[in-house]
Amino acid sequence: MKKAKISIDKHGIVSDVDPRIYGSFLEHLGRAVYEGIYQPGQCTADEQGFRRDTLEVIRELNVPVIRYPGGNFVSGYRWEDGTGPKDQRPSRLDLAWSTVETNEFGLNEFMDWCKKANISPMMAINLGTRGIESAMDILDYCNHPSGTYWSDLRIKHGYKDPHNIKLWCLGNEMDGPWQMGHKTAYEYGRLANEVGAVMKRYDPTLELVACGSSGIHMKTFGEWEREVLTECYGVADYISLHMYWRNDDKDTPRFLAESVNMDRFISEVVSICDYVKSRKQSKKQVNLSFDEWNPWYHNRHAPIEAWSRHPHQEEELYNMEDALLVGSALITLLRHADRVKIACMAQLVNVIAPIMTSDNHVWRQTIFYPYMHVSTMGLGRVLNTLVDTPTYECSVSDHAPYLDSVVVENEEEETLTVFAVNKSEEESMELSCDLRQYADYTVAEHLVLENSDRYAVNTEEDPFRVVPQTGGISKNDKGNFTAVLNPLSWNVIRLKKTR
Ligand code: AHR
Hints:
- This protein is α/β, with parallel strands linked by helices.
- It is 24% helix and 25% strand.
- It is built from 10 helices and 25 strands.
- Alpha-L-arabinofuranose (AHR) binds next to loops.
């Protein structure tokens, strides 16, 4: 059995968790919007065509914030197309994903859906084919009470009260050559600064996310962040990070070590933000928005019928080991809770998603579970968890840890929650921790997600093949905490103060 140790101190706090790190992402892509959340006439659809069955499962995830409408899609999008009477909305080519967008679902439907789902919007604007003027227009349409062309148009469209959207993304992945309107760092940084300045002139309390690199492997990574932030440091509140993982070669140890790259990505972007801060002698701190992350390789860019409407596109079938990496990614985000304030799993429904739908059913993929566990039990404050773990060598790192773990304390609920992944393929791991400061806390629950087949998946026919079980082995004996983590398992150990 492998042995690992974690150490915490009640007073050694990384940060309170910003619940927005459990955000999600909804793009006009494939069947995410159409058929995923919106399907008029479907047996559970409400009067607006929103699927109640999908909404119910989404609610289990406790999603605080959702990025919309893209993604690559936004870089060619005219937001006005998705407003006003539905029968007058134009269909347009979506050149990002080679489909036709009918615009039946648009900004106002999205806001109505957010209300029903109890999720806050994170609205992305098009800085690919558009710029300052359309940013001013959408802001006026969404947030101004009345008395202007755009706000009165919103009222005419049936929305008397402003939407009051506070969180905005200044474009999407503008460093990527695949992006419509792709720009150099200087061009984008200047534009982001100009757009951000007019937006903040209208409302200085808006929060703005500038585009960082669309991956740590981009040739421009690092220099992109430096140059963009140099141009727009005054208006940017966050810089974005995106990361997708592949496991085409079925190399489990390497794949599970990708959380090391995620950790490095975060630390390096923090350093660059702080470098620009010091160069500018600024008091302001720019934080991180990790607003796209997930494994994505099972069906990535599989061919579709070009210019069709909401085809099956980018539909990933996630297996057990994908869930382990998702768990490790969530742990990594938590461990950086002092600087990562927003993060969005990409995406929510049908497209690279934890939730899948057919015409009559909704089911949870393997990756749904770690996401749900952390978003519901990972609220409070992150304790600085020192991890002493055996390591292994792989192409990602010479010292990839077998254990990823983090501890979150919730003072109000008087709970302490340990999230842990054992990446060993063969061996269980004994995890120990000195919990004498929490000697009066006992293990209330130890949830385990595991499967003898690491490639096991949940499907419409077999939706509950990979589900968490209670009954993991752990105890806190007067402050001596021990737990057994099975090979290739995701673990949630919840301790509660005893009366
Ligand atoms: O999430 C799918 C796509 O991945 C997004 O549209 C884009 O931003 C990224 O490349």
